[in-house]
Structure formats: structure tokens, C-alpha cells
Amino acid sequence: MSNKFIVEGLNGKKTLRGEIRIGGAKNAILKALAATVLFDDEVQMTNVPDIEDVKRMRELLLALKTEPTVLKKEIAEKFRASIVLSGPVLARYGKVEFPFPGGCVLGERSIDLFLNGFRAMGAAVEEDDSYFTITCPSTPLGVNKLKGARIVFPLVSVTGTETLMMAAVLAEGQTVLENAAMEPEIADLAFYLNECGAKIEGAGTPTITITGGNLLHAGGTPYHTPPDRIETGSFAILAALAGEDITITNCNPNWVEVPLKLLEQAGVTIETGKDFIRIKKSDKPYKMVSVRTHEYPGFATDLQAPMAVFMSQCEGEGSILETIFDGRFRYVDDLVVMGASMVVMNPHRVLIRGPKELSRKNLASPDLRGGLAYILAATVAEGTSTIDNAYLIDRGYEHIEERLRKLGLNIKREAV
Ligand code: EPU
Questions:
Q1: Which residues line ligand 1 (CB under 6 A)?
Q2: Catalytic residues, which ones?
Q3: What is the pLDDT of residues 223-255, one digit of tens each?
Q4: Distance between CA atoms of residues 334 and 359, nearest Å
Q5: Domains of the chain, with CATH numbers?
């Protein structure tokens, strides 16, 4: 059964107020769950968000209990982060079989960096119609183990970095990852793995050095999921668009400095503390900004669609340059029908002119972050809009309608 959201628009008024708490980061917990394969004991986890992708990762891990080297196709095809499990499973069991991973359709999302990384660590890669099969080389003792290697990523990949970093934890000898992704979730995971016996240096910088060793041991030390910085940025944009006075709590403002900077540049009044962001209404029209997505610490591609909605309400002309993915403007056509002035120049650039009044539309979420952008657009718009494919939003945002209702938005979920 699928669900849709029904949102009564505020017609450009800024009336939402109150507190909204940030949940645990999707793109941190999914990797931490995968990392449990590297442990010889139970790992406790706190601040785990109740989102669909976490349920899928749990199902995938449970299925490993019956077939320890197979990532089940029906589940792995539902989300991209499934591929992260391939590293720990391969490193621990000497073999892994997995399908091409699913996830949001954002253009070409290849897996060559993973396969080449495994090859560099001595593994053999085979492929048939449904599965990739990766096998570790056997050692003189008959144990199949990965070998440490120096791996230079030709481009920066978040899940690629995480997968090979985790694989290297159980490999023989030292692995060096160059041009690694620097997302804070990676440093956070490495910190926890180190507490449990791993030897990872440099996570959070472009060079990560991992010295392989034995299985990790949690010994009762829990993993605490850090706050979701994409949720933080998304709600900051919501507050700028529709808030009278909104405080975003339980977040890390240092992880969203660039998006906050851009909002401030546009004229949004922002106050930050150690773990909160407060945004108050300003009556002056916002000035247009331009955005260029970039790997962390740059402007996150996952905030690109929500930011486009914000820009549709700014005065002047600006552009978004999407540098990570080549298919992430699928939301544009619907926003244009709602009244936004946006022109896709090529798969990487969209021009936006504002401010434009938006009006109601029946929408269907194109992907996770695009879906959130539709909720923002529906909030700003005149009239009542519906957003189908709620599942895609539920993949990454916990009980979004309940949380937004507390701010005063009239939003409901309905089965269709
Ligand atoms: N790429 C390759 N070959 C590979 C891997 C990636 O060519 O083997 C390319 C991709 O096609 C893309 C670029 O490298 O053009 C960067 O992709 P990256 O691998 O960094 O993305 P990802 O690891 O698949 C993660 C997040 C995404 C987020 C991106 C970029 C997870 C589970 N997903 O994806 O999050 O957009 O990093 O920051 O961590 C989301 O949460 O909605 C989401 C899509």
C-alpha cells in the first residue's frame, strides 16, 4: 500500500513556529549497521532513526544469518547503501555476492570504484546477469583475506570510501585511501571503530590509512548516531521559507556551515548555538544566491532540490551548478508547473528567477530529496497539494508529517 501527503499551503505566509528535533543521520547509521559485520560481539546503537532505509538494512543483515556471503537481490535493489555491506562481508568471509544496488535515480551511479578497490586488494571479480561475485585471494594458511593496498580514487565517493575503509579493517597489512571523501559521517564511523579496536587514521581528510587486524569488539560501548545534517539543512530552508520563529534542535551547526552561509547571504536571520539553529522571520524579500554543489565541506548535493525551492522565492536571477550527479533536476518540471521560473540549461545547470508565487499541484515524489523539496514547495504554495510516493520521503525522513504538524503546518498522510 502506498501513501501520500496532503499539505495545505501557507500562500507565502511565514507562520510556522516552535521546535523541530533532528534525528540520527541516515547516511551514518546505514554504514554503522554494515560495520557490525566486522565485530565479534553485539553492537548497541542509539539515536537510530525510524526510517525505511534502516529497515531495509536490517532485513539485509538478518538475511546474512542464513547465507553469510549473499546480499539478497530483492532487498539490496531497494537502496544504494546496500553496497556498503559488500566491504565488511568480503573482508570477514572471503567472499561476497551482491546485485547492482538500487536507490534514488540521480543519473549514472556506477560501482567501478568499489570493484577496482577490491581488485587492488587482491580480490577476483566475476559478474553474471544478476550478481557480482567477489572472492579474496587465499593465503598459505588457507584463509581467504584481502591484502592492504594503496588505492587512489579517481573521483571522490562517499560510499566507496566507507566500503573500502571497512574492508581494510580486516585486511592483511596497511591500506591507504587517497582522494577519500571527507564527510563528517566517515570520521564519526572511524572514531567508533577505533574505540572498538580498529586502526584508522586520517578519516575526515583526503588520506585515510588503515592498519588491518582482528575482528572488532564493542564490549558494551554503544554507537551513537550523529545528527542528520541533510535534515538539518532541509529544515533550515523550511524555516527560512515559512517560519515565523523556528528552532532546530539536537543538530550540529558546524556540519551545515555552507548552506547556512548561503541563506544568510540571501538575508535570512540565523542564530546558532552548540547544538541548535534558530531562524526568525524577516520581512525584507530575500536576495537571490547561486549554488554550486560540492563534496563535503561544500554545499551538499542532497540539499540542492530544497535549495531550488528557496531560490524560487528570492529576488533576482541565480543558478545551481550540480557537480556530483548528472540526473538530479527531475523535480524541476513540477515546480515550473506550480509557477516557479526555472530553466534546465544542461544536466548540471539550472537557472532560477524569482520571486514567483507557487500554486497547488498533485505531485509524486521523484526521489528522497526531491520529495522533501515538494513538501517545501507545497508549504509555500497557495491551496492544497498532494505528494504521492511518500515511501521515497520515508526512506530518509522520520515521521515527517508529525514533526511538521507540530510547527503548525496542516499536513496529513493518507493511504492510496
Ligand atoms: N561514482 C562512480 N563510480 C562509483 C561510485 C560513484 O562513478 O563506483 C560516481 C557517482 O555516479 C557520482 C559520484 O561518483 O557521480 C559521487 O557519488 P558517491 O559515490 O559519493 O555517492 P554515493 O556514495 O552513492 C552518498 C549518499 C548520497 C549523496 C552522495 C553524495 C549514501 C548512502 N548516499 O551516495 O545520499 O548524495 O553520497 O554526497 O551515503 C541521499 O541521502 O538522498 C543520497 C542520495
A1: 26-27, 30, 80-81, 104, 108-114, 155, 157-160, 301-302, 324-325, 368-369, 396
A2: 104
A3: 999 999 999 999 999 999 999 999 999 999 999
A4: 11
A5: 3-23+227-415 (3.65.10.10), 26-224 (3.65.10.10)
